[in-house]
UniProtKB/TrEMBL annotation, chains A, B:
Gene3D superfamilies: Aspartate Aminotransferase, domain 1, Type I PLP-dependent aspartate aminotransferase-like (Major domain). Its EC number is 3.7.1.3. This is Kynureninase. HAMAP family: Kynureninase. Pyridoxal 5'-phosphate binds at T105, S106, F133, P134, T135, D136, D205, H208, Y230, W260, T286. The lineage of its organism: Bacteria, Pseudomonadati, Pseudomonadota, Alphaproteobacteria, Hyphomicrobiales.
Length: 420, 420
């Protein structure tokens, strides 16, 4: 990686030099990005790639339209959840056979929590973060509702730090690797070790770290992990999620979403459930093949990506963004919410602003797409495969202009839409 | 509808006359059917339509690629599960606001069973059919595993008839409207009435009846229903499933797959779950939008379909098939498994044959695609929107030839593939 420009006063020429020397530069051409847009929301919905669109078209025109039911065998539909699981496994430090694609992150959290509780009989407490992405907590509530005696304790409510909640009553701790709102990165290895020392199990939600930075599930000795594929992995809107279970747990996995795809002999049409060996036991029902085929195309791109280089660029992009925004927009009431230390940061940067909603709407109107998170966060995602240094430079210029001009105060920017 | 040909001895001319007079004839052109294939497996995977492919392409090229995250609002992605739910509702006799699309049939059975058990406190028995599509039973097992005291009783194991199992201990009865294997159609209204008389609730699995025949959920006073969209509804491989809950239950619905899409305020990012009003409470996580957009195209076709006419053609097709197969192939050991009475039959016909697997492989090689169901069933689905009387005539001719020649005895037809 090139040395940083002088971040105290970067200029367009130094930004251009950074892009010219970017070892990931060629990947941008694999994505279909709209004209006139600086897209800093790949942490919410990743961009489409030519590969994903080509796979989708093949799935629709050849596999479905022409080959019809035969494609379950001839196009490998049936094994795709396991094969794509292995592809994702390679990106998150999981050896083959421990990751499977299917259902949603929410559903997979439910499976993992039940499996973890079954592995720790006599323990009834689930620990999670009050700052968690909410669905993790809602699913934990759902699990608690089905298990007499079980309870949920939250960091930020029941104790200030997660470590204070981890004791001998705890069966499982559910953690976000990177926080969806602040972008804070947890130390997976250290925290998993701390959890194991108390005899509990760790579930890691990788929604904001898979494809954003190197993840080492096996090395960290994680027990379970879940994540979505439509953010940094670019699998397409609502693409199926994934679940990881460490091999040492496979033999004893019990989870109640015991559908036929997780059966040892799904086509023997037996009355009684008998779980398939290995990670397949986390499968449940028939998966959305068209969405999964787009995901396959998106994942193929990652075969050529060095995750260490990805991380270096990610940090360079976020460093640059923080520096530029603080230097040029600090006077307009924006305050950094993301940890400044590199080792505590994912691939997004969040700034607080009292009128974050209106400011984000004004940015979007000018073609700079980030997102708003209630109550007052401007969130910007940096996706090293297709975000350039020039994007960062230009986005900050637009933000500065919006804040300096006060245009965001115009009433049209305050109109809320269904999804914010 | 035209009168039947003389079924004792129909000839090609009378078959041609039937197709010429078919009021649904024009629908066939809306589907993309491969050359040289007679597709009698739309009850496993429905055919692609031009409308579904066009919607999918718009979703991929415009909504995802160009408009990116904005499409959650601008393309109506967020409300699609409820809007498509209403579209399906119109096909299964459900007034608006009672049906939502999402997840899989298996997952939706889990939600419905939990919701039903919560509505009948003090009752702990789930009744189902041993001949049910297996995943229904596996999911019921999963529910039982999370509810101390709950148990599962099966028609065909614990008593010969389902009616014998329905007593005051029963909370809910889970029934297949049309049996996946035999094609037998249950009397929804009568059975629901019998279940309600015992104080229990009825869940109807519509996988093999939605889009195959008129269904009247509201009229039958059904409590819950689930179904898939990739069979007769032609939504595409693994397209998202649906769930129906009668409006009278909405206020009291509790189900443990309580993800953020079922929250009253999903974007307020609250710690605690608060269920959305109405059918939205059955939503859980982010849905596969590409698959759902193809489904939208497929469902649009149904706006122009009269379900009574569909049923008449379905019965005429299956009558013809039964008559022809029995007349021409009866001597080769094929035996009707589907009820002969029209009012007890869905839109498929199953025949038993000792070597059903091999015979079906030989049929597929000749371009007649039905499917095999273990241990010895030849299953043929008739989809009135794109199956012609000529298809039936030609398929039987091929079956007769295969059985008469004994070609199915060649070893290559005995090789089993992953999905059978």
């Amino acid at each position: 990686m090139p040395a940083h420009p002088d971040l105290a006063s970067p200029d367009p020429a130094s930004i251009e030099a950074l892009d010219a020397a970017d070892p990931l530069r060629a990947f941008r051409d694999r994505f279909v990005l709209p004209e006139g847009v600086i897209y800093l929301d790949g942490n919410s919905l990743g961009a489409a790639s030519s590969a994903a669109l080509a796979e989708l078209e093949a799935a629709a025109r050849q596999e479905w339209s022409r080959d019809l039911i035969r494609s379950w065998n001839s196009a490998g539909w049936f094994d795709m959840p396991v094969q794509l699981g292995d592809s994702i496994g390679r990106l998150v430090g999981a050896a083959d056979g421990q990751t499977v694609v299917g259902d949603t992150t929410s559903i997979n959290i439910y499976k993992a929590l039940h499996a973890a509780l079954a592995l720790r009989p006599g323990r009834n407490v689930i620990v999670a973060e009050s700052g968690s992405f909410p669905t993790d907590l809602y699913m934990a509530e759902g699990v608690v509702s089905t298990r007499p005696g079980a309870s949920l304790k939250l960091e930020g409510v029941d104790a200030p730090a997660i470590e204070d909640l981890i004791d001998q009553t705890v069966a499982v701790v559910l953690l976000n690797h990177v926080n969806y709102k602040t972008g804070e990165l947890r130390d997976m290895a250290a925290l998993t070790k701390r959890i194991h020392a108390a005899g509990a199990l760790a579930i890691w939600d990788l929604c904001h770290s898979a494809g954003a930075l190197p993840v080492e599930l096996d090395v960290a000795n994680a027990d379970f992990a879940v994540g979505c594929t439509y953010k940094y992995l670019n699998g397409g809107p609502g693409a199926p999620a994934f679940i990881y279970a460490a091999r040492r747990h496979h033999e004893n996995i019990v989870q109640p979403l015991s559908g036929w795809w997780g059966h040892a002999r799904p086509f023997a049409m037996e009355h009684a459930y008998a779980g398939a060996p290995g990670i397949r036991r986390f499968q449940c029902g028939t998966q959305p093949i068209l969405s999964m085929r787009a995901l396959k195309g998106a994942l193929d791109i990652w075969n050529a990506v060095d995750m260490q280089i990805l991380r270096q660029k990610s940090l360079a992009l976020t460093d640059l963004f923080i520096t530029l925004v603080e230097a040029r927009c600090g006077q307009y009431g924006v305050t950094l919410e993301t940890p400044r230390e590199r080792e505590r940061r994912g691939s997004q940067v969040s700034f607080a602003h009292a009128n974050a909603y209106e400011v984000m709407q004004a940015l979007i109107e000018r073609g700079v797409i980030g997102d708003f998170r209630a109550p007052a966060t401007l969130r910007f995602g940096f996706t090293p495969l297709y975000t350039s240094y020039r994007d960062v430079w230009d986005a900050v210029a637009v933000l500065e202009d919006i804040l300096a001009s006060g245009v965001w105060k115009e009433p049209r920017f305050a109109v809320r839409s269904a999804v914010t």
